[in-house]
Prior knowledge:
homodimer, alpha/beta, 3-stranded mixed beta sheet, 12% strand, elongated
Amino acid sequence: xxxAKATINIxxxxxxxxxxxxxxxxxxxxxxxxxxxxxxxxxxAAKKKKLAQVISTDLQILKNCSVIFLALPITKLLNPxxxxxxxxxxxxxxxxxxxxxQPILEVWEKIHPKFxxxxxxxxTNQAGVDAGKHNLFLNKPWVVTPIDxxxxxxxxxxxxxxxxxxxxxxxxxxxxxxxxxxxISHLPVFISAALIHSTSREKEYSLLELAQNLASSGxxxxxRVGGGNPELGVAMAEANRSNLLAAIRAYKNSLDYLEQHIKxxxxxxxxxxxxxxxxxxxxxx
Amino acid sequence: xxxAKATINIxxxxxxxxxxxxxxxxxxxxxxxxxxxxxxxxxxAAKKKKLAQVISTDLQILKNCSVIFLALPITKLLNPxxxxxxxxxxxxxxxxxxxxxQPILEVWEKIHPKFxxxxxxxxTNQAGVDAGKHNLFLNKPWVVTPIDxxxxxxxxxxxxxxxxxxxxxxxxxxxxxxxxxxxISHLPVFISAALIHSTSREKEYSLLELAQNLASSGxxxxxRVGGGNPELGVAMAEANRSNLLAAIRAYKNSLDYLEQHIKxxxxxxxxxxxxxxxxxxxxxx
Lengths: 285, 285
């Protein structure tokens, strides 16, 4: 694992799962962390958990920082407050953690000269100041999406930090990133939510009750992401709408294929499709 | 946990995950297990694993048994060989483990007077003589689907055994069972397989490669059952075709709803739907 040598002042805006975990690991490396929470109550909880050496709701503490992570929800990244923008030192390297990159870069390339679009992919099921934990980024992809105007030195700073956390550094274009996460990260949320709905819209009470009693690990796994944070799901759909709609269209075609084979009792073809699925999944997992 | 008092001779036809696990637990309770494998090679492996006291490919050993479990794939349960039928003692209680019940009962109520339709729901991802393990059925549903012609004493025998394994005894109608598993067990396989296909049909190589690198726990969980055993998937579809097709229709309606909200940018309604999904899932899990 790469270890950053010099210790620096790092600001982290938002101390939820991603922000809190960044704070814990970077603090352990010897850096001084300036953590920002939105509410006073969260600041108290974050102090109890010792997420950072300095914790405040006051954005002014960021003036001490040479690197700042905006560990905020997508909606806040797309609509940053003036107070946040003004609190960012002009020389600081600023990065985010949002799961869409093109819309965020369109906003931030105009705001900050040393902004790096980041997407550390390390789970999103837990939230709040209690969610942060050590080694969250270990062996997880950390995607960055530099554009023409990106400051190369700033990119190197983020690269060093992400490698020091044990993350897998992946550099790609924002457009390609957003298409890919549309397929493998955002689409699953909606096909999984639809599965939950298709059972709950069942009107026959005895059937619904039985289904609830019989639901086993297969149902549990397939519905996990669909039963996740509703705000996050909406934010994904809103920020990555066209890629998500394209992914849903592709998905419906795939499902139509399978349905057609079942309708036509074409078991040979259905078996082929399921074999392809099995082999394909191995390449992803 | 209920413990069966008298030790008996129990035949188990098929020593895969379900059959092998039954054999291990029932042997531990003191019963004498007569295990049947299809191939000589599997018999050798099963003997090495000590899955049963008597292991053979010769169905004649079943003549010693008062209870026999047919731990066979659905297709073999729907098309039993004459050799199997003739090897079952007329007085023995016979049960199966198939994940559909109505078609199996239609076949078996004509073959054996003491047949009990069972579906112990204890996972299906592993297979073969190495898959069996202790306590597989602990706290898992064991569904039985008695019909008018069912022998009540035989039903009680299976109930005692299933409770002795720590399973949750659930008694229902075959038709209702098949509808419920169509929704919560068979449907997930196909919606999950379609997700794998929708990513793999992607023609842009760089996108496919990136998607494969970024696929995380959400994608992994949502695609698990779709990347499972193809033979089992086809057998489910074949044996539970009309319920599965109805479930797919219901599913497509649910997905259309979500897609519509995204198309119309109706984020309020989308959030409502995702909140409902979250709450509904809690009732199932």
